[in-house]
Known about the structure:
Elements: E1 3-12, E2 20-30, E3 35-40, H1 46-52, E4 65-68, E5 71-72, H2 80-86, E6 87-90, H3 103-114, H4 120-133, H5 138-141, H6 151-163, E7 169-173, H7 181-196, E8 201-205, H8 209-215, E9 218-223, E10 226-231, H9 233-236, H10 240-245, H11 252-262, H12 273-287
Parallel strand pairs: 3-8, 3-9, 6-7, 7-8
Antiparallel strand pairs: 1-2, 1-4, 4-5, 9-10
Amino acid sequence: MQIVAEKLSHVYSPKSKFAVAALKDVSLTIDEGEFFGIIGHTGSGKSTFVQHLNGLIKADKGSGKLRVGEFDLLDKKCDFKKLRAKIGMVFQYPEYQLFADTVEADVAFGLRNFFPGLKEEEVKFRVKEALETVGLDYEEVKDKSPFDLSGGQKRRAAIAGVIVTKPEILVLDEPVAGLDPKGKKEFFALLHALHASFVRTVVIVSHDMDNVAEHCTRVAVFDHGRVFRVAEPKELFRDASALAELGLDVPVTGYLADVLRKNGTPVDTDFTVNDFTRKVLEKWRERA
Length: 288
C-alpha cells in the first residue's frame, strides 16, 4: 500500500489562544516496499504526521489529501478499523502499551478486536507465531503477567501484540529508545526480518542518524510542520551544514568523512559503517 499525503495540515486546539499548527501543507509519498525514515527536531511535526496514518489523529477538515492504499482517510466513510488492522503502530517505549493480565491475552487483544470471527485455535496459533517471531518462548511466557517480564521481553511482547495482525505497514516512533547497542542491533534485525516477510513497508521516526543511515531507503526531514527535504541517506548526510541549521546531527561516519575531507582525503560513502570502512581501507591501500 502506498502512502500519499498532499497539503495535509493539522492544528492542535484550533480556535483557541493555545492553537498550534503542527502540520502545514505536508506533501509526502512513501512507496510500498520502502524502509522509510522520518527525522526532525522536537516539535517538527513528525510524530503528528505518522499518527495520521491510521487515524489516531484525524486530518483537519478542508485539509488536502491523505490516502493509504485504497483507504481515503479524509472520507467520512473510511473504515478505520479495517485500516488499523493493516497498519501497525509502535510508539516510543512500546512496553508501556502492555495492559492485560497475561502475555497471551495482551498479544491477542488486537487480533480479537480486528478479527472477532476468528476461532480460538487460530487466535492461539497466531499469538504463538507472533511471540516466537519476536524471539519469545510461547510456553514460557504466555501465562505470565506482562509486567513480570524483563525490560527487553516487555518490548518484544508489545511488538508481538502489533504484528499479530500481520500488518502490511509498520510505523515505529523512536523504536530503539533506551536500548543498548546490542539491543538496537537485534531490534533492527527483527524489523528487517519482518520487512522480508509480511510487512511490506516500514516507517520509522528517529533521532538516531546512525540507524537512519544504516537502514533507511529514503528519509523525510520535517521542520516546523513542513517537509523540508526528502532524499536517500547518502544524499541527505552530505549536506551536514543544512541539517545543523535544523538542529540535526549526521551519523558518526558523516563526522569522520568530514574530517577526512578537510585533511585532503575525501571519501565517497553512503554513510553506512561497512561502506565507509571499505572506502577508507581502499584509500589507505592506494597510499600504501
